[in-house]
Structures are given as C-alpha cells and as structure tokens.
Specification:
The protein is α/β, with parallel strands linked by helices. Helices cover 37% and strands 14% of the residues. The protein binds magnesium ion.
Amino acid sequence: MSKALVYVDFDDVLCQTADAFLGVVEREFGRRYAFDDIHFFDLEKSFHLNQEEYEHLMGLIHDPSILRIMVPMPGVLDVLKEWAAVGVQTVVVTGRPPETEPVCHEWLERHNIQYDRVLFVDKYGRTPSSQVGVEVVVPENLIDLGFTLAVEDAPAMIEFLVHQTDIPVAVLERPWNRRMDLSRAEGRVVRCKDWLAVGEVLNERVRCSA
Ligand SMILES: [Mg+2]
C-alpha cells in the first residue's frame, strides 16, 4: 500500500469538533442542542445564531484552548496507525484559519498521528487571512496532488471533490451530510458510518488499483 496518499480532513473527521461546540454554545448563549440537531454545516443555522453571536462563536472555537482538547473520532487513531505502518501517507487538509497552525500540529503530535503535512485550504471562501508564513491554497490546488482517497464530512468540499476532481471520496457520515444526494457520483463516493468503514474503503481502492 506504499503509494497511497490520503487526504484527511481535520474537524469532525480527525476530531470531534461539533461535539465540543455544543458545550461552547450552551455556555456562551445558554442554548442546549444535541449532536443530531446539527442539521446544517452552517453553525449559524444549526444553532439559530445572529451575526454577532456567530462571529463570537467562530472566534471562540478557533481558540487554541478549545482546539487543544478536542477528542479524537472513535477508531481514527488505530486506522491511521495501521496506514502509517504500511506506508500510507496522510495529508491533513483543513479549512481552519491558518492562525491555528501551531495548535493543529500540537494536537496531531499529542495523539501520535504520523502525517505528512497540514495543508490549509480556503474551503469555504472565507476572507483570506494575512497570517505570515502559512500558505493557504484554493481547493483547485488539490486536483493534481495525486490523492488516492479523500476523507471529508463538509458538504461544500464533498461537492467540490465529486464534481471538480477525480479523487475518490469517503464521506464520514454526520448529521449535516446525511441528506446529501450522492447518487450521481456512485462508485467514486462511499458513505462511511465510522472510521472502520473508511479503512475498508482505502483497502478496497488499493486492491483495485494494484
Ligand atoms: Mg470537517
């Protein structure tokens, strides 16, 4: 499996981000939501926030003190360890703001994740940051990197990968992508209920291309 190069998203793929947000929303706005209430990737909609509250929340959730303590997704560490052992290269592809770079590396190292690099991508058309020294690429830059598989949860990025690239996609099932219609991309997109399923998708891909 030594040639495989895998795109792994950070939030809600490597770590349980939305789950951590629920606590922040309750603490800051006094509103309690359950994980399954997060029907929209757009947190403004899911948590019924006004613009001011949304900006406050975005500031808080990109704070190192919150990002540092995110819990790994169930099963992810075992799968990544197995991949690393057989030479699979992992590139962490995140839409987080580039200012979060130090805490991203800190988190990955703390959990002994072997990764090639963290790639910051402007996934959601957010205002580019002027952070010096951290490159932020546009999604189109992902097209020719030779990914064997992309593991994503965000609807906008899944749409992009499906329609603008040839990269096979493992969609990690979350409440906000459950209703996506992926029927047109059948064969290249696989819905995965957990990381065990993601591991199988890569095995299958590698077997097919061998
Ligand atoms: Mg994500």
